[in-house]
Amino acid sequence: MERPELNSCGQNDGSLPGRCAPLAFPYVPMQDQDPPRYENATALQTGTLFPGLDLPFKAAMTDKLKTNNTALAELMALDFAIDELGLYLTTHPKDQEVLNLYWSYIKLAQEGRITYRKMYGPLLQTDITEQEGFIWLNDPWPWDEGVNG
Question: What pLDDT score does 5 carry?
Fold first, then answer.
């Protein structure tokens, strides 16, 4: 009994729109221990905490996507750095220096949220109490320019 041909390109090729191409074995090298890191604000703008992971198109976008230096932008940068460090620690769990940095950023972010809420109001729906009601509906909105210092 003959098997129906699943790929008209052949056994060693895969189909692309309008043509065939040889199959490949993808390989992703591991990141070195303790790689250089961007400052938080730069990491947020470039899309990665680690310069070695820069994507070619990001350089063209960096100038177009400047983030204002505000309290909210600082919290966003910290959260971004925490996420990036967490991903790095997934593959490098014994990197004590990065683990210490990770926990220090978490502490800074927690303190920053407390300060932000005192100055500008809640960041999340879960930051309110029953007594405050729907306080986030009051103007001005936290992301309005010039409001969140």
Answer: 47
| pLDDT tens sequence across 25-69 | 777 778 888 889 988 878 877 778 888 887 665 555 555 555 566
**Three-class SS state of 14:** strand
Report whether 92 contacts 98 (CB < 8 A): yes
The answer to whether 13 and 22 have CB atoms below 8 angstroms apart is yes
pTM reported for the whole predicted model? 0.54
Domain residue ranges of the chain, discontinuous segments joined by +? 40-124
CA distances from 85 to 31, 38, 132 (A): 12, 12, 35
Mapping DSSP onto H, E and C, the string for 22-59 reads ECCCCCCCCCCCCCCCCCHHHHHHHCCCCHHHCCHHHH
Instruction: Yes or no: say if 145 and 66 are a contact pair by the CB < 8 Å rule.
Output: no
More confident residue, 82 or 46: 82
Report the amino acid identity of residue 1.
M
Angle (nearest 5°) at CA 58 between 55 and 60: 130
